[in-house]
Amino acid sequence: MRVGLLGVGRLGATHAATAAALPDVTELRIYDADPERARMVAAPLASAKVAATVDEALDGAYAAIVVTPTDTHAPLIMRCLDSGVATFCEKPIAIGIAETQAIVDHVARTAGRLQIGFQRRFDSGYQRARAAIRAGELGTVYSFLMVSCDRTPPADAYIATSGGQFKDQFIHDFDITRWLLDDEVEQITAIGSARGFPTYEAMNDVGTSAVMMRMKQGTIGLATALRHNEAGYDIHVEIHGGKDTIAIGIDPRTPWRSMEADAPAFASPPYPSFHVRFADAYRAELAHFMRFARGERENPCTAADALEALRIAEAAGRSFRERRSVPLTEIA
Ligand SMILES: NC(=O)c1ccc[n+]([C@@H]2O[C@H](COP(=O)([O-])OP(=O)(O)OC[C@H]3O[C@@H](n4cnc5c(N)ncnc54)[C@H](O)[C@@H]3O)[C@@H](O)[C@H]2O)c1
């Protein structure tokens, strides 16, 4: 199967290596706006070739993988779908609700195949947690805590086109909350700060924030995110039910220095980056995408799912800016 891959930056380079290693990918055509970068990423991959244009990358391709900056996703998705190519695109589809809705509508109109990259759905910890909740092992789920820490902040150029912390970083938490709990966010309250990052303030963004969510069934959640914590790339969750509490992503080699007496200290964090933390999930996600492209599997993460996650992010941004709690019904 020939696959076109657009964008080989921080994550695209990893997706290129992962896709090239999949048994059903016979040729990977890589296009990046920076041709030198495309050459560097393609060089060690036996099945990879560099394409000079988007059209050349998509020519004869059965599937496409889009890992370009967020503000370029929507037109590239349209182009892929209009060429009849099954498409995987990294989160989020776009920064705006209207642009995202246009993609949802286009998928419906063209019966296009579009899978969105929310890889936590493919992480074994999240999958086991969802199964435990569905099996009733926690009893009634009352509350949850989610923590997302980048180890080092992304480049300012990335932040500028990312949509900001609520749409870029928290969007994973919003997607996985819906997926884990089989429930929808009803109301959201967000606070944030650009402490330590004056450049974020200039971009109307924040680097540290907290979001409180009330779910329709009454579960209460708190998610916090920050862009800089050298203890390690840390994504973890606690879920508290009447019968039990479970945790996801708390590595037994805990990345934190414990303040308890006699606790061991660890010299280096277990997860240096998202590439390591979610390596297995990214592999499973792209392997699933190839089967979805062939019509052998259901779409595990649709454009409509991405729109719902973006609506929650939009509400969080509004709550932060207007300093009030926002019901999701306000977001069209
Ligand atoms: N799922 C995850 O865990 C995760 C993690 C990081 C990033 N992402 C998402 O992946 C996307 C890319 O993020 P990144 O960190 O790799 O960004 P990046 O800035 O490191 O890389 C983007 C690459 O795309 C290239 N590019 C820019 N415009 C292009 C175009 N029109 N056509 C082809 N190539 C183009 C750039 O030259 C660069 O090499 C973003 O949408 C981001 O939200 C997802």
Provide an overview of this structure:
The chain is an alpha/beta fold and 332 residues long. It has two domains: 2-119 and 283-301, Rossmann fold, CATH 3.40.50.720; 121-274 and 309-330, Dihydrodipicolinate Reductase, domain 2, CATH 3.30.360.10. The protein has 13 helices and 13 strands. The protein has helices at 10-20, 35-42, 54-58, 73-82, 97-110, 124-134, 156-162, 165-168, 170-181, 198-202, 274-277, 279-293, 303-322, and strands spanning 2-6, 27-31, 48-50, 63-66, 86-90, 114-117, 141-149, 185-193, 208-215, 220-226, 234-241, 245-248, 326-327. Strands 12-11-7-10-9-8-13 form a seven-stranded mixed beta sheet. Strand 2, helix 2 (35-42) and strand 3 (48-50) form a beta-alpha-beta unit. Helix 6 (124-134) packs parallel to helix 9 (170-181). The radius of gyration is 20 Å and the shape is globular. It starts with a strand and ends in a 5-residue tail after the last strand. Bound molecules: nicotinamide-adenine-dinucleotide. Nicotinamide-adenine-dinucleotide (NAD) binds next to helix 1.
